UniProtKB/TrEMBL annotation:
Residue span of region Disordered: 329-382
Pfam family, one: YbbR
Protein name: Cell surface protein
Transmembrane segments: none
Coiled coil: none
Natural source organism: Ligilactobacillus agilis
InterPro entries, per database record: c-di-AMP_regulator, YbbR
Annotated PANTHER family: CDAA REGULATORY PROTEIN CDAR
């Protein structure tokens, strides 16, 4: 009776309800976990089999005998498009343990078009190199050591200041390139762009350029490629009087001699104390190109030495005298000796000719005598 009452009580039903609620909750949680795991597994499997495409930039490598040949005309960097399984593509992107190269080992000097190749990538990947081919110039290699010249615009220096001797952090550099370009190498320059109205020493890191005589930039490799160029700038407050020295500039007419004179004997030079201490005279170039007769030239005096800012006066008048070049004593002796040899040779020919005539006369006389004797003999016989 008591047991039946217990089963019929509210407490019993509440306990039963709680039990089934817990059981249902456990079941639902278990199913959700299975579903989540199944979904994750599907995503992971999908990532393994899905494809991916990426485009990378990478350095181009050349397979060539670099000790013997110099190669030009190729790009430093190329693009590579990689397609395939996502995991392999991502691995290639992250590690980049592959290379794109051009095989030039069997090629001789000249212009060649070659196809680029790749190595280090999985065979399951599809690779496209951009560009697929390149054109290169292969030349015999040559190396030369050359001094560095620093160039700048002196007009950018402030009034009342002067530049000292410009210099670079590297006095000499090594230039490597095709033999024909190295043979045409004239100078290596560091172009320093001074600020306007510069009034203090200026230094900057600049790239070097290799130039030929016409100023054309040569396609060569300079080591080091950059230097620190410096232009010392000082206050130009000193002045000094120095004599002028007139010198010929250019090529005059053959067999002509030139002499110069001017009423101006000395000039006043302005500049730094250091520059003026080294200056004892001022060379003034006077052009003689195409000058065939006496003339008068107005020559402009321009500062050309480091540390010199101005020259007073700025222009001088120069008298140019033109005369026939005198034959030197040595040349006269040579000409006299040549004439004597010619006269001696002519006299010898005449003597030989006279001897030949005498010989012919003697021979003729002997023949006549023989003929006479023969005739007498014949007469006797008769």
């Amino acid at each position: 009776m008591k047991v039946r009452q217990a089963f019929n009580s509210k407490l019993f039903y509440r306990l039963i309800s709680l039990f089934f609620a817990l059981l249902l909750s456990f079941y639902v949680t278990s199913e959700k976990g299975n579903t989540t795991r199944s979904g994750n597994s599907g995503t992971f499997g999908s990532s393994l089999v899905s494809n991916k495409t990426i485009t990378l930039e990478t350095d181009l490598k050349l397979n060539v005998n670099s000790d013997k040949y110099f190669v030009s005309g190729y790009p430093d960097v190329v693009k590579v498009k990689i397609s395939g399984p996502s995991a392999l593509v991502i691995a290639a992107k992250n590690t980049q343990n592959f290379e794109i190269y051009a095989d030039l080992n069997d090629l001789k000097p000249g212009v060649h078009t070659v196809r680029l190749k790749d190595s280090g990538l999985s065979s399951e990947l599809t690779v496209k190199i951009i560009p697929e081919k390149i054109t290169v110039q292969i030349s015999k290699k040559k190396t030369k050591k050359t001094a560095v010249q620093v160039r700048y615009d002196s007009n950018r220096i402030a009034s009342g200041y002067a530049a000292g001797e410009a210099y670079s952090s590297q006095a000499y550099v090594t230039v490597t390139g095709a033999a024909k370009d190295i043979n045409n190498l004239d100078k290596v320059v560091a172009n320093l762009n001074l600020p306007r109205n510069a009034n203090e020493t200026y230094a900057k890191n600049v790239a070097l350029q290799a130039l030929d005589e016409s100023g054309k930039v040569l396609n060569v490799v300079i080591s080091p490629a950059n230097v620190t160029a410096t232009v010392p700038i000082y206050t130009a407050s000193a002045s000094k009087k120095v004599p002028i020295n007139l010198v010929a500039r250019g090529e005059g007419v053959s067999n002509m001699k030139y002499s110069f004179s001017s009423d101006t004997k000395t000039v006043t030079v302005h500049g730094t104390k250091e520059a003026l201490s080294k200056l004892n005279r001022l060379d003034v170039p006077v052009s003689i190109t195409g000058v065939t007769a006496d003339t008068v030239e107005n020559v402009r005096l321009s500062p050309s030495q480091s540390g010199i800012t101005a020259i007073s006066p700025t222009t001088i008048t120069v008298n140019v005298s033109v005369g026939q070049k005198e034959t030197s004593t040595a040349q006269k002796q040579t000409q006299a000796s040549s004439q004597a040899e010619t006269s001696s040779a002519s006299s010898t020919k005449e003597t030989v000719a006279t001897d030949d005539s005498s010989s012919e006369a003697t021979s003729s006389s002997s023949t006549s005598s023989q003929l006479s004797s023969s005739s007498s003999s014949d007469e006797v016989e008769n």
